[in-house]
UniProtKB/TrEMBL annotation:
Protein name: LacI family transcriptional regulator
Keyword presence, Calcium: no
Record-annotated HTH cro/C1-type domain positions: 2-51
SMART domains: HTH_LACI
Cross-referenced PANTHER family: LACI-RELATED TRANSCRIPTIONAL REPRESSOR, TRANSCRIPTION REGULATOR, MEMBER OF GALR FAMILY
One MF annotation (Gene Ontology) recorded for this entry: transcription cis-regulatory region binding
InterPro entries from the UniProt entry: Cro/C1-type_HTH, HTH_LacI, LacI/GalR-like_sensor, Lambda_DNA-bd_dom_sf, Peripla_BP_I
Assigned keywords, A-Z: DNA-binding, Transcription, Transcription regulation
SUPFAM superfamilies per UniProt: lambda repressor-like DNA-binding domains, Periplasmic binding protein-like I
Amino acid sequence: MGYTIRDIASRAGVSKSTVSRVITGKGFASQEAREKVLKAIEELKYKPNGLARAMVSQKTNNIGVIIYRHQSSLRSDSIDETMIDSILKKAKDLRYSVFVTTDGEESLNAADFMLEKRVDGLILISSFRQKVIDYIDQFHVPCVVINGMIEKNNVFQMVIHDAKGGRYVADHLYQLGHRKIFVIIGSAEDKTHRMRFQGFSDRIHELGGHIEPENVWYSHSTSFDEGYQLLAKIWDQLVRKKPTAIFATDELLAMGAMKFLLEKGVQIPKDIAVVGFDGTDRSKMFHPSLTTVQVDKAKMGEDAVYHLDQLINKKDVKPTKIEYEPTLVVRESTNRP
């Protein structure tokens, strides 16, 4: 049977407004009235009794995960599901329920949604603007950031060492003998992709090489279609300049580019080598399989929940930045020119 606030009020011998104040936590209610209402809620098994208990314990055992994207829709090609699966599994082990949503880089809507749900803590993933973390910080909700690159010292940050991954790509291509390389960068506004390119470019220069500015291309998004369309756009220049390798700072861009090249009869890696960055399962299933930089994102997801739990339970842990070491996985898409 479903009970109402009226039933709770009758059982507890208080007014409906008192019940409402106790349940919402807004407005004054005496300790005696609170105890009567909470007892009535328990006895009648009123649905919001979890919330009522939360008001006593100050915990809901819910955490929120917000994935910030240039485009806020959650698509299968825009998020590494390995990380999300790992977050969900670790959260279940620690007896948390999880709300997962997406939002645009500058939007506060998802943060408001999570705060209204009274989550115990938040995991913020990927690209968002500084104003988002500044806004959340006002509410003193424990927070862990994955690959967000924010300028704040009091937040637990977990980042991929993107610049080092770019350096590994440079070493690999240079050692194979590639000197004329085209670069596709995920987005000029995304610090993650800028760092990947910066590490790559710096290492090429250290090795005595040079990346010509006109051979560097920026995409509007990190999608398979964008990689395909960008290659179509620069095809004439590619034919004219005859680069021996392409480095894309996102593997979906790399695979989109590969599809276009293969349709044009270009043999990979015989005619041109291709390297990506991210290391999802898609890269090994593509043909030819993609040489890429990968990070253990399952561990990042698990660690994020662990550290958030430590913060929620006020363990003696100080916010810090943890950098995760990337690994270059060499597959079929690279060889000597």
